[in-house]
User: What shape does this take?
Amino acid sequence: MDASTLPRRWLCDMDGVLVSEGRMIAGADRFIARLRETGHPFLVLTNNSFLTPERLSERLSAMGLEVAPSELWTSAMATARFVQSQHPDGTAFVIGEAGMHEAIRAVGYKESDQSPEYVVLGETQNYSFEEFATAIGLIERGSRFVATNPETTGPGVTGSLPGCGAMAKLIESATGVKPYFVGKPNPVMIREALRILGGHSQSAVMVGDRMETDILAGVEAGLATILVLSGVTREHETHHLAYRPSRIVDSIADLIDEI
Assistant: This one.
């Protein structure tokens, strides 16, 4: 079958597109329902590596959005799949929450602080000096350094919280070794999602609210891209960038009748 005749695959960012500040964005449930009704394969993508797919599915359900664990693709899962593809059945020293630890085990990796192939850094609110000291020592002795996502901050109740990118900078400053970020905007995360869906870039679309992660990742992976204005990016902020989304819409609700 020619790629142009394949059903369109949809990759959709989560925060700012489907949910925001603990609430479902209007129309997100009907958008997901419409994808199912029309038989369009899809995955919901997130750079958040905190939660396992099961817990993330439960959290979305509490907001009124039904997304199965198998329909979620997190930066933790992408990072685990990446290290397994590069060095099968190896070992890793992991800093992160349950989502990262479970993902690394799910691909057959073992956690170790004894000369592991990789130091893997994910999002967490429980960073410890001991963990960072261990990670720095391992990288200095030759362990490869990967991290889930490059965002330096995340939202908090009283203001921004340090993100994975900021914590990665600490390790980089101490070791002189830059991490390889697997999450968006790295097109690796997008291409692996397409592989899971059995699709091609020519027949897929990436929907997101951040130019510097979602849209850039889609552009670099060769997908059509749709920027929604329900999240972080405002339309005027796109004008100075070298890359552009294929389309700009107000929210996910604007796409329901087009599926």
